[in-house]
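Let's study today's protein:

:::
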Amino acid sequence: MAIRTSGHERRRLIVEAAAALFSRQGFNGTTTREVAKAAGVSEATVFKHFATKEELYRAIIEAKSQTQKLLEAVGPLVDAGDEAGLLKILAREMITRTLADPTLMRLLLFSALEGHALSELFFRRRMQAVDEFLSEYIAQRIAAGTIRRVDPAQAAWNFIGMVVQYLLLRELFQQKAPPHITVEQAVDDIVTTFLQGVRA
């Protein structure tokens, strides 16, 4: 006797299947028929839940972008005056969340390369919010006199760039870190290097 799945569960299966396919083949290179097959449903069922591929992609962004949770993890440290502590948590959260589910990073790269309209939504939901948070935090620390006068937005980009480079090497290019370099050690090195460059 076949087990019937709820509409909510079918929707989740479709989103997960589409995310996996889009992250390997891109938005343009994936058909709704392939999504249906991977999700174990009919193509009609896919369109029942998502009228267009764009709507499906939007649902993936909503499901995969955990920016709010990421910022909530570092929020309590904003007023503590502990730059190293906040940056370590931010970097660690970005790295561990991506390593646990690398489809988001691959989707972000594909969306930018393919240049479709949803890449802007993806950027705003995932990257811009983190950029703005960190830029504002750095500006606050400059005002407090603990970070020298640098452009806050550029400094935020520099820090995030170090984290993203680590992830690109690990996930996209499959480079293995030396055995003694754990994620925690990598995070410490990134934060130490960055703060040595911007400390007042």
Q: What stands out?
A: The domain at 65-198 is CATH 1.10.357.10 (Tetracycline Repressor; domain 2). The radius of gyration is 20 Å. The chain is about 75% helix and 0% strand. Residues 23 and 106 are 5 Å apart (CA to CA).
